[in-house]
Amino acid sequence: MHSKKALIFYVVRSTFVKKDIEILSAQFTVAEFDFFSSKKIGFIISFISQIIFLLKNIWTADLLLVEFASYQSFFPAVFGRLFGKPCLIVVGGTEAHYFPGIGYGNWQKRGLKNFSSASLKLCSHIAPKHKSLMFSEYHYDENEPQQQGIYARIPSLKTPYTEIPNGYDAAKWKCISTKKKNTFITVANGWEYGFQKSLKGVDLILKVAPFFPDCEFAILGVNDPAIFPGLPANVKTIPAVKNDDLVGIFSAYQFYLQLSIAEGFPNSICEAMLCECIPIGSDVFSIPEIIGDSGFVVKKRNVDALKEIINQALVCDNATLMKKARARIADNYTLAQRNDKLLQLCEKLIQN
Fold it and tell me: What does the pLDDT look like over 96-129, one tens digit per residue?
């Protein structure tokens, strides 16, 4: 039992949420609150349950950490302010995105916008997974606003922030098989949202694939192939798999496609790069920095730009870029780095 106590709030206990819980558990006694432990319960019940949790635990808490600004972050930020307890909000993506053309981002809906904005103003500190989530110039899709990030939505925001990128286990994520030549894969899920095909750039893949009949394209995370009627002959869908099974799948593919309109700090491209997939990504938010000189960046969201990049990729020095892709993540985005930065920030907030 640790002497310090942290309260952690989230909506889904995803892989990256689990990582942060594990990091804090090394130095804190952790109490977790899942805002939507059941999707059948409404917002009112969720808010009431969260308030009860806070009233029970705030007295002995040293720190409140919220995974992402949304409905679940409002009362932790309020209670942190009222009781003088530091509240840290991890910013992952949607709370920094405003894409009315596809109806995506917290700033699309009044409720989400208001709760996100109030949370970010009231909390003690913000920990974006990449600095571009605070502000970035955006030129990839000309139909969308060209200023993105939290400061673009809340220009007067005074809450301090510290960038803490995701971290990855290079011992787990590694190439374990021979790659099939001229193969491309992308990962996407959440198909219940109408914007998902555009958001993840799958619509571009479907349009460009017929120009490369000798190549194979795969979309991983499609449990119902019926949502993609009339697929090009060289495009296949793969059902969602467990996280541990991704190593074997990534290892078989030569290129990873991350053609998103918007991202925070995408896990799949980093995990694929560790498995020596050569990355091809859109020029948005953290993606160009993640790729560095180990792959290719698509500057504009159109088929011609993507065709040009794929043509370059097909004649590249595969062996060199595969090694560069792995080294790019293994050297710059480790679990140890996120661990150290997150714990150091938490200690600093407690001491202040």
Answer: 999 999 999 999 889 899 999 999 999 999 999 9
- Check residue 109 and give its pLDDT: 87
DSSP structural state of residue 264? S
Q: CB–CB of 330/274 below 8 Å?
A: yes
Q: Tell me how long the chain is.
A: 352
Cα angle value 203/221/218 (rounded, 5°): 60
Instruction: Say how far apart CA 44 and CA 225 lie, in whole Å.
Output: 36
Instruction: Report, at the CATH architecture level, how domain 183-332 is classified.
Output: 3-Layer(aba) Sandwich (3.40)
pLDDT value at residue 41: 67
What is the number of alpha carbons within 13 Å of residue 206 lying toward its C-beta?
A: 13
The low-confidence residues of the chain, meaning pLDDT below 70, are 37-41
Rg (CA), the chain: 21
Q: Where are the domains of the chain?
A: 4-167+335-351, 183-332
The CATH superfamily holding the domain 4-167+335-351 is Glycogen Phosphorylase B; (3.40.50.2000)
Alpha-carbon span 274 to 258, nearest angstrom: 15
Confidence (pLDDT) at 186: 98
Are 4-167+335-351 and 183-332 equal in CATH topology? yes
